[in-house]
Amino acid sequence: MTAWETIREAPRRIGEAAAQARPQLRSITSPRRRMAGATFAVFVIGLFFSGMVGMLLLTTLLQNQAFEIRAAQRTASELSYRASDLEAQVNRAKAPVALGQRAAALGMVPNPRAVFIDLSTGEVLGKPVPVRGDEIPSLTRVPVVPPLEDEVPPADAPPADGAQPAEGEPAADAPAAEQPAAEQPAAEQPAAEQPTATDTAGATP
Amino acid sequence: MSQPSRRPSSSRRRPGRVPLASSAFRLRLLTLMVAILFSLVGARAIQVQVVSAEAMAAEAAKKMTVGRDVPAQRGTITGRDGQVLAQTEATVNVIADPSMIATNGKEPEAMRDSDRAKAAVAPTEMAAIIAAHTGVPAAEIEAKLRRTTTTNARGETVPLKYVQLAKQVPSSTWVSLNAALNEVVRDAAGTVVRGGYVGVFRESNPKRIYPMGTVASNVVGFMSDGKGRSGLEMAQETALAGTKGREQFETSPNGKIPLGNQELLPAVDGQDVQLTIDPDLQWMVEKRLGERVDEVGGNWGVAVVLDVENGELLSLANYPSYDSNAPGDAEAGDTGNRAISAVYEPGSVQKVLTIASLLDAGVTTPDRTYPIGPTITIGEHTVSDAFKHGDIDITTRGILVKSSNVGAITAARDLTPAQLRGYLAGFGLGQKANLGLPGESAGSLPGAGMPQFQADSMSYGYSLSTSAVQMAAAIGAVANDGVYTAPSIIKASGPHNGALTPVAEPVSRRVVSEEAARATVEMMEQRTLDSESLLSIPGYRSGSKTGTARLTAATGGYAGQVASIVGVAPVEDPQILVYVLIARPDTTGAGLGMAGPVYRDIMSLALPRYGVQPSNDIEQVKLPLFKE
């Protein structure tokens, strides 16, 4: 056999040798990778239910927050109403009409003859004149005692204790009390109305 | 012989029949139908999502979106010290759903006997509680609560879901009412006896309130149907009202969608307006004026307090006045502002302006004397003086102090009518003061080409008309060293509850020289000294001028008269001007007696109030009024 023939024969021999050595071919069954029908159903149902529960939780959370917001808004609204109401009451109470009436009821009188004191020298500018109380009677006449019912502060308001003892005092110390007897009626007129004012103020906690 | 019949097989169907029995064909048909169906759905989806996506989305959003107005808060009107003259209180209407009360808040079919029993007595019990809180009669409330049906526009009977029980109650009243209605009373066994009522609600309905009532009501005005109808409420309506906003949100049957689209165009609250008015002084002035007008049987009165240095009106009082909270109770004529709308011939107060003009023109001096007789003829009329005299030599000062008509006419003839008119126009007569209030009158001033008799009349306060504010501002110019400053009543304005910006400086111009103005004020002081016991202000040098003039009737001619007085203090540096007018139906009384006491009290209160120090050297020397 020539070398050439040897070379030519080589593949065939190799093939034959391979054919003799090759094991019998058979099909291999691949393992079942698909999920079993029941498991898949359970998985889908589980996914569905967890989705539902998640949605429910989310909705509940949002609703709760919405309720909280609504409640907070309602509270804010009520509080702003209350603030507005109280503001109005304060403004009514500090209006000159109400203050004037109460001042007059306490026996206070306007002073049209005020004098000035120069604080640097202590000099009094102007001539001090005792006020009798009848200088401007239109300001001391009290047509009606102001209705205080709706102006009584709530129970938790600070008590007006500091103001109460002072109520009786100005009348006693006022120049009006030092006036001659003939002018007493004018000074007594406010004093006569004082019980009413005290009663009303007394209702204040 | 007949052939036995055979069922045709599928392969041997008769021609022209649809082979429905063929499962393959049915499958194909079904597939085709599903394909067609999905094609339609797909086409529709494309139409919805692509072709007309925007329009469809907008339509959907529109159906889900609810919009409502966001009300703007109306601005507050305050006095110069910040005290509130007008504000908006967040009051509420108490409303009810009678059909809800009739079913105790349940569906009719779900009602139990206990619900029916409660629904039967609830209106009576609720009416008692609501009446106690709101003051509305219980019977009226109960009747409203028991009327559970109404008739709609088509004449059908429908359940009544809304009824108003009380209007604009304070929110604190609502809070306590709501608590009372919700309170549950149980007996010893724990059974609900009463309480826990349903069907009463509130709705927002803000109310404009005027905490000071009558104080400055003629300036502030009032509102009706949500709009200003008088005073500043009307004149400043646009600024005070602000601009309402708009809120839009997506909603579902369960209410607002929490994460849905929301748009809020916020409301722009109205502007706050601060006045130059001092509410405390205003109250005192109104009280004093009102009492005096009643005492003397006057028709009406007006008092003006002016800061002469800047033209700010510290008080602008009217009597009779009204309560801005209850304008319906007022007489029709009293809700305006006579201080700016009522025009009258100013009478002798005008002589202050005439003499200041003469002094400025250099045609007279305080001591120049004028020989006058008891009367003087102007046109076809003869004019005399209020005090009896023969032929006398009266000084310029005497003309002012004694209020000589004859002297004023004589002296004023040294000016041409046009010259005199020019001065008076400079003092602001014949032109609106432009305070920014409704109903302002300009008064009248004769034209420059007027005949001499009209100029003669003008010199002592006739043939021209003014309002009280115009006259106060004119005299204020004399007191302010001859510089006219337009009166103002609005001090500042700005955003609600924000920083206020002062309004522009008022118009200011020199009318007469400082020397002429000062000499005139000193003559006015002589007028005060002439009636010292009635007019002097203790501790201060003050000047004044009284006047009395006939009131022009609307129908022509005269109807009653106006007694007036104007005063300035302190004379050495005038700061405060007080002008008081009292109108009477007859010709009884004069400025000194009628209006003098009001002037003196107001000036006495005003001077120390604004820190005007007492005068150091009070001039007591009476200077010559006549040639000795």
TrEMBL record, chain A:
Transmembrane parts of this sequence: 35-58
Keywords per UniProt: Membrane, Transmembrane, Transmembrane helix
Keyword presence, Membrane: yes
Low complexity: compositionally biased ranges: 158-195
Extent of Polar residues compositional bias: 196-205
Segments of this protein annotated with the region Disordered: 143-205
Name recorded for this polypeptide: Cell division protein FtsL
UniProtKB/TrEMBL annotation, chain B:
Keyword Membrane carried by entry: yes
Keyword annotations of the record: Membrane
Pfam families for this protein: PBP_dimer, Transpeptidase
Localization in the cell: Membrane
Keyword Nucleotide-binding included in the entry's annotation: no
Cited SUPFAM superfamilies: beta-lactamase/transpeptidase-like (SSF56601), Penicillin binding protein dimerisation domain (SSF56519)
Entry-linked InterPro entries: Beta-lactam/transpept, Beta-lactam/transpept-like, PBP_dimer, PBP_dimer_sf, PCN-bd_Tpept
GO CC list: plasma membrane
Transmembrane segments: none
Residue span, Penicillin-binding protein dimerisation domain: 70-257
Domain Penicillin-binding protein transpeptidase: 301-603
GO molecular function, one term: penicillin binding
Biological process (GO), any one: cell wall organization
Family: Belongs to the transpeptidase family.
Name recorded for this polypeptide: Penicillin-binding protein 2
Species of origin: Propioniciclava sinopodophylli
